[in-house]
Amino acid sequence: MFEGVLEKEIAEILFVVLQNDDEESALEIIKKACKEDIIDEDFDIYLPELRLNTPILIAIAFFNRAKIINYLLKQDYEIDRSDFGNTPLFLAAKMGHIESAKVLIQNGADIDYISCFDQKLLLETIATNLPQNTEMCELLISSGAKVDNKMLEATKAKLSEAENEKQKKAIQELIAKIESKL
């Protein structure tokens, strides 16, 4: 199917298919390309939002495609591969992609990852997901992520940003979970 097709063209096709929420088609393309040894874990997809070429597993996490992540992990792709400070879980968590994060955590992704910029996964997740979404923070904590006082203070600071009582209550519950782990 891909005979004579350049990697760049496959990357462009995958980007369009992933962007259009067609996970099944993307998975079929990836399966065929893997079978024919056209792509491996070093295969990059250009992500305009990040302005860089990104290793395939990180790009798939960016698009929140849990089935494809699961497939690539079964092909022995490196789960904690880092690129410009992002691992698949780091990016999925910052973006609030619960399903992808669950697959990555279930397969052993490092939930206490610290990026090359000295950013802790849970702390970055607190900064980017609160006050709107506490679910990702709760997932990381319930999966065993280490908490510290800096994370507690960052979560408390988000209380003032709560837009309604529901958000305020969710953040208060998250604060209680963090305090129980200290």
UniProtKB/TrEMBL annotation:
What sections of the sequence does the record tag as coiled-coil? 145-177
Residues passing through the membrane, by range: none
Mind telling me which InterPro entries this protein's record contains?
Ankyrin_rpt (IPR002110), Ankyrin_rpt-contain_sf (IPR036770)
* Repeat (ANK) residue spans along the chain: 84-116
Q: Could you confirm whether the keyword Repressor appears in this record?
A: no
Q: Which SMART domains match?
A: ANK
Ordered alphabetically, the record's keywords are: ANK repeat, Coiled coil, Repeat
What is this protein's record name? Ankyrin repeat domain-containing protein
Species of origin reads: Helicobacter trogontum
